[in-house]
User: What shape does this take?
Amino acid sequence: MAKKSSIEKNNHRKRLVKNAAAKRARLKAIIADKKLPLEERFAASLKLAEMPRNSSPTRIRNRCEVSGRSRAVYRLHKLSRIALREMGSKGLVPGLVKSSW
Assistant: This one.
């Protein structure tokens, strides 16, 4: 089990990203628009830089929904390799058959 603080930190980042997504998209659209004057685009880039770093989607870490493990997480199932193996052996993951011979 991962530390509770690491899991909560990641959840906080997810909330920040969700709240700031519209504002970030608006600023990025202004920056990318070549028809606008350079000063306006530069001001938009400064505003984007002033936003909290944790509001960027790249700061979110993929974590296992069961254990909170941050490494070897399958995106499709949102489970770590260990949790996926355990749940697959018990038949809790639909469509997954654990192979053994």
Q: What stands out?
A: The chain has two domains: 1-60, 62-93.
